């Protein structure tokens, strides 16, 4: 495996994502929301940018233009905590100490990351330095010449690969529609979170992560009792876990805190609803907003007169 001369220090970032299309942004939303320091590099040739107008992306009844979709995706990723850098990636390699990855962009300074997610559909050349046995690339003949391309089936269904810490969300042989690509990105993002939890000490049986906000009114007496959460966590632990008592309690209490934070009061739900719609307005043309406001005001006045 290729290495390069770099200081033997801990990686500076938790996750680097190469590609800022629907796949990469979906990965980033899940990793950043969990609290992982996430960077998205975005300046490559995204397949969706070749689309004239997108009409089958869920949530847009009349379709959506690509510029607006990209604005919404990047805004969402940044709101979740991602940093988006407009640069291409030249290479991803192992540093000399073998800890994480050295990510070298075309224009900026190299950075280090614990995990890397490839989310670019067309080009995997930047990962060439990680390909020990050429399993990452396929060869084929065309017009008497031998060519290579990235193997779309190199990664597992959840994006994990034989290279520890490397995930491939795209290219994939399955996810050829933008909506499917976003779904794959979400799946890979959750895999990254679960692997992170395992490296932080959570046994596999309790390392799964479910990103879901709940209504506090649904927190009944049973689950409002912290001891019930403790029982649930302990019941899922395998009998052969190697956690000492102090570490087991620490991880359990941290996980319970995280779970309880997902329950939102009615007031918080209302606040987030207003905030969410305000953020959507930032992506709508001002003239359309003003036109809609005039129509609403006209309808209101008509209703007052008729009453």
Fold and architecture overview:
By secondary structure, the chain is of the alpha/beta class. The chain folds into 3 domains: 3-199, FAD/NAD(P)-binding domain; 204-264, no CATH class; 266-306. It has 7 helices and 12 strands. It has helices spanning 22-33, 66-80, 178-199, 226-236, 245-260, 266-281, 286-306, and strands at residues 3-4, 13-18, 38-41, 83-85, 89-95, 101-105, 111-119, 137-142, 145-150, 166-170, 214-215, 263-264. The strands form 3 sheets. Strands 1, 2, 3, 4, 5, 6, 7 and 10 form an 8-stranded mixed β-sheet that branches. The longest helix is centred in the middle third of the chain and has 22 residues, at 178-199. 27% of the residues are buried. The model is unreliable at 1-8 (pLDDT under 50).
Short précis:
Keywords: Flavoprotein, Oxidoreductase. This protein is α/β, with parallel strands linked by helices and 307 residues long. Helices cover 37% and strands 19% of the residues.
Write the layout of secondary structure elements.
Blueprint: E1 3-4, E2 13-18, H1 22-33, E3 38-41, H2 66-80, E4 83-85, E5 89-95, E6 101-105, E7 111-119, E8 137-142, E9 145-150, E10 166-170, H3 178-199, E11 214-215, H4 226-236, H5 245-260, E12 263-264, H6 266-281, H7 286-306
Parallel strand pairs: 1-5, 2-3, 2-7, 3-4, 7-10, 11-12
Antiparallel strand pairs: 5-6, 6-7, 8-9
Helix pairs in contact: 1-2, 1-3
């Amino acid at each position: 495996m290729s290495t390069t001369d770099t200081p033997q220090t801990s990686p500076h970032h938790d996750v680097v994502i190469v590609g800022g299309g629907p796949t990469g942004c979906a990965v980033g939303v899940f990793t950043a929301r969990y609290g992982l320091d996430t960077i998205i590099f975005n300046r490559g040739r995204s397949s969706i940018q070749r689309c004239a107008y997108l009409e089958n992306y869920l949530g847009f009844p009349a379709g959506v233009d690509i510029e607006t979709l990209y604005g919404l995706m990047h805004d969402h990723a940044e709101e979740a905590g991602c940093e988006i850098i407009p640069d291409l990636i030249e290479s991803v390699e192992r540093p000399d100490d073998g800890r994480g990855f050295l990510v070298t962009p075309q224009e900026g300074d190299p950075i280090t990351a614990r995990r890397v997610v490839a989310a670019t559909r067309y080009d995997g050349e930047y990962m060439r330095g990680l390909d020990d046995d050429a399993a990452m690339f396929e060869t084929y003949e065309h017009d008497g010449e031998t060519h290579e391309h990235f193997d779309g089936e190199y990664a597992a269904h959840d994006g994990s690969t034989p290279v520890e810490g490397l995930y491939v969300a795209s290219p994939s042989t399955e996810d050829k529609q933008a909506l499917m690509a976003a779904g794959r990105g979400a799946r890979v993002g959750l895999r990254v979170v679960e692997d992170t939890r395992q490296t932080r000490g959570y046994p596999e049986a309790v390392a799964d992560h479910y990103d879901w906000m709940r209504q506090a009114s649904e927190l009944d007496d049973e689950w409002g009792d912290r001891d019930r959460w403790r029982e649930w966590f302990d019941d899922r632990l395998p009998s052969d876990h190697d956690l000492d008592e102090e570490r087991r309690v620490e991880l359990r209490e941290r996980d319970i805190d995280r779970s309880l934070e997902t329950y939102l009061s009615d007031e918080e739900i209302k606040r987030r609803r207003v905030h969410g719609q305000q953020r959507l307005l930032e992506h709508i043309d001002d003239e359309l907003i003003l036109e809609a406001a005039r129509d609403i005001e006209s309808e209101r006045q008509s209703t007052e007169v008729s009453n």
